[in-house]
Amino acid sequence: MPYPYVLLSAAVSLDGYLDDTGPERLLLSSPADFDRVDEVRASVDAILIGAGTIRADNPRLLVNSPERRAARAQAGKPEYPLKVTVSGSGDLDPDANFWHTGGEKLVCTTDKGAERAGTLGLAADIVPLGPDLDWRRLLEHLHDVRGVRRLMVEGGGTIHTQLLQQGLADELQLVLAPLFVGDPDAPRLFGPGAYQGGRLRLTETRRIEDVVLMRYEPTAPGTGPLPSAADHHWLALACDLADRCPPSRTAFSVGAVIVAADGTELARGHSREGGDPVVHAEEAALAKLAPTDPRLATATVYSSLEPCAHRASRPKPCARLILDAGVRRVVTAWREPDTFVAGADGSGLLAAQGVEVVVLEEYAERAKAPNDHLAG
Ligand SMILES: NC(=O)c1ccc[n+]([C@@H]2O[C@H](COP(=O)([O-])OP(=O)(O)OC[C@H]3O[C@@H](n4cnc5c(N)ncnc54)[C@H](OP(=O)(O)O)[C@@H]3O)[C@@H](O)[C@H]2O)c1
């Protein structure tokens, strides 16, 4: 199931706090950065915050610029993004600013929380998501039922921690403010728990008055059948690599990336790379690694087209090469059509040997694009 693109946004003190413990909200951003946040809000379909932030900050969560609201309306969007809050208890203050400003509102909650919230006369749709709140179900609901394609999450720490730890955040926009809080009782951005093992990818740094904006992308592949946000990024890269293939009338153009469990890129390849007229993408990538590399056993192979199961040009098809390398997880965008081989089923071959094969069909069009000349 596709999810919205999930963008986490937060400002922290130099010692990593989101707020102090005083009754007023601690202003961490600079005026120009608040305007940047307004711009990001104007670019998304929905903004989500936890019930704790409604209680602590009583925010309105608006797009403040009339020009940005007008541009949204002109583009056929609602003037304000949908406002979403998450609550397990359903214990929400009906007088909070959240309900009385902006456009449509949604409470995502548990079955029990929905009973409680339903008695409060909130100006919002209430969505029960089962006995416990499942983030994947919530994202599916926003995508499929509410048409949300870009979701901005504005805290607090409990929410950011869960989305990052569950591999559901596509991007973190973090602003570092030049002040200290120094109070161990103050809320932190990220709580304890299991995060991805390796390093995130730093995609941008920007000075905005006296604060610094840093943008990061998680890199760790998912585990098992559930795709992580990073799986999407890596598969998109594999599709981009397919664009680099020298064109051929007799073979597909495919890109592949091999990524370690901690998010380190191990190797990449594409069809007909390096002047080899028959090399396949997965084969080219695997050839760059020692067969004994211990990281292969927990790595994920991303391939724009599923690994081949039959092949005339070389003794071993790519599905066999992947099995021999000991890789246990493959993410692909497109199942092989009958263009060159009837009934090719590389995914089936891999799955029969216990490899987890995840197909992200939302990337199929991108994977097919460099092969359009083979249609029919
Ligand atoms: N500096 C910044 O950028 C920034 C941004 C936002 C917030 N903040 C600060 O962050 C603090 C609030 O953060 P917080 O961590 O206490 O609260 P929070 O993350 O905003 O909200 C936590 C609440 O969300 C609900 N919730 C979260 N996960 C849930 C789950 N899996 N199932 C069911 N319900 C769930 C629960 O609501 P119920 O209690 O109703 O069950 C929980 O108490 C405030 O001090 C605020 O000022 C700072």
UniProtKB/TrEMBL annotation:
EC code: 3.5.4.26
Q: Name one Pfam family in it.
A: RibD_C
Please give the pathway this protein is involved in: Cofactor biosynthesis; riboflavin biosynthesis; 5-amino-6-(D-ribitylamino)uracil from GTP: step 2/4
Catalytic class of the enzyme: hydrolase
UniProt keyword Oxidoreductase, yes or no: yes
Report the residue ranges that make up the CMP/dCMP-type deaminase domain in this protein: 229-356
Spans through the membrane? none
Coiled-coil region(s) at which residues? none
The record's section on PANTHER family has:
2,5-DIAMINO-6-RIBOSYLAMINO-4(3H)-PYRIMIDINONE 5'-PHOSPHATE REDUCTASE, DIHYDROFOLATE REDUCTASE FAMILY PROTEIN (AFU_ORTHOLOGUE AFUA_8G06820)
User: What InterPro entries does UniProt report for this protein, alphabetically?
Assistant: CMP_dCMP_dom (IPR002125), Cytidine_deaminase-like (IPR016193), DHFR-like_dom_sf (IPR024072), RibDG_C (IPR002734), Riboflavin_Biosynth_HTPR (IPR050765)
The function of this protein is: Converts 2,5-diamino-6-(ribosylamino)-4(3h)-pyrimidinone 5'-phosphate into 5-amino-6-(ribosylamino)-2,4(1h,3h)-pyrimidinedione 5'-phosphate.
Give the catalytic activity.
Answer: 5-amino-6-(5-phospho-D-ribitylamino)uracil + NADP(+) = 5-amino-6-(5-phospho-D-ribosylamino)uracil + NADPH + H(+); 2,5-diamino-6-hydroxy-4-(5-phosphoribosylamino)-pyrimidine + H2O + H(+) = 5-amino-6-(5-phospho-D-ribosylamino)uracil + NH4(+)
**Name recorded for this polypeptide:** Riboflavin biosynthesis protein RibD
- The leader peptide range reads none
Q: Supply the Gene3D superfamilies for this chain.
A: Cytidine Deaminase, domain 2 (3.40.140.10), Dihydrofolate Reductase, subunit A (3.40.430.10)
State the similarity comment.
In the N-terminal section; belongs to the cytidine and deoxycytidylate deaminase family. In the C-terminal section; belongs to the HTP reductase family.
| The entry's keywords | NADP, Oxidoreductase
